[in-house]
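User: Can you predict the 3D structure for this chain?
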Amino acid sequence: MMSDEWPRAGDVIWIVEGSGACLRYVWSDNHTFAGMLRGYARQGRMFKSIAEALDFAKSERAMARISEDAAADREKNPINNDRCYTVWPGGEVGAFSSSHVNCLTPVFHTYEAAEESAKKWMGVKV
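Assistant: Here is the predicted structure, written as structure tokens:
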């Protein structure tokens, strides 16, 4: 995404915030401003075109909805065994040990619940 020659002063860049909002900036050589935006680049949230930014934002919003589904699923069916299921950003459903749960990972108690959420929000066939 970021290379030595991009962005240059005056280039339009697109940033996707954690909320999924797309923001348009014009790159400046101001070191404070550039440092802040490089943080977005390191996170993979800085794009050359609005189309790229919107695709990424769509995925971010879908993952937020999947996380909400996962929280509701865990409320109804607490995870009390060693295996749980998640939906990865590409829409793939995977199983893993509940001892390896990251607080940012949407965790479901069954494969079917994770698959249903992926289909609903990402429109993927798992």
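The chain has two domains: 12-48, 61-122. Residues 50-76 form the longest helix (27 residues).
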